[in-house]
Amino acid sequence: MSVAQPTATTKRSSAAGTSHSLLHRIIAADTDAAAQSLVVNSDGSTTMTLVKNSTIASKVSALTDAATIATNAALGNVFTVTLGGNRTLGAPTNPVDGQKVVWRFKQDGTGNRTISLNAIFRVATDIGSVTLSTTAAVTDYMGAIYNADDVKWDVIALMNGIS
Q: Which residues are CB-neighbours of 154 under 8 A, at least 6 positions away?
């Protein structure tokens, strides 16, 4: 087994002008650390983060079916809803720049349900428009990334007809 010992060093000065050195070592077996970060806080303390062989699970949240479907982006990154009629996907609240979200739309037992998008969504030209499958009980997925500079959700993926 190999051992990696990456080191991060930061320096700060005290009020008296004395230089202090902070030395941190990360020991990761087989160099399998996926992410490492060292943050020097404003009070001079440090925070070390090490993610080792981890999978970040998607938080799946059920949405309430309504004429306008509300999404609180702070609650997850995968949102599900069964459509009981033709609906509008409202502007998601609490987004974070670069946040990636997937919406899972399922047709109810009747099918032929449509989804319209709030103006905060813009659709990639190769997708064109968001048109859902019409078959009862079939699921469609739509993926988007939040662009805080433009205050838009960019729809970058659409997968139809999962049954």
A: 121, 122, 124, 144, 145, 146, 147
**Is the pLDDT at 158 greater than 80, yes or no?**
yes
CB-facing half-sphere around the CA of 136: CA atoms within 13 A:
3
Q: What is the DSSP string of 95-119?
A: --TT-EEEEEEEE-SS----EEE-T
64 in Cβ contact with 81 (< 8 Å): yes
Residue 105 reports pLDDT greater than 90: yes
Angle at 118 between CA 96 and CA 79, to 5 degrees: 55
Token code pair at residue 137:
């009980």
Among residues 18, 24, 20, the alpha carbon closest in space to that of 39 is found at: 24
